[in-house]
Task: structure prediction
Amino acid sequence: MAHYKAADSKHEQFQRYLEKSGVLDTLTKVLVALYEEPEKPTSALNFLKHHLGAATPENPEIELLRLELAEMKEKYEATIEENKKLKAKLAQYEPPQEEKRAE
Result:
């Protein structure tokens, strides 16, 4: 009987670990998505892998690309903002379009 309680305790600890780390919640969401899928995929395992992100073996490379993309987006936004400021500054020194046509 003591052996049964020890195994039960380990089971409960493991279950709490899975709950705290978000594994149970994530698995539940993916399984619900599979359940709600109108046309069931031919491979449920591939569906789970795809939705858990395990379908791509190059995950570290993808993460690096995502970081690079985020940096490029920031630089792009900064460049757009600088461009707007420079256009406004340039507009101060250019004659209005109506005066150019009159000449």
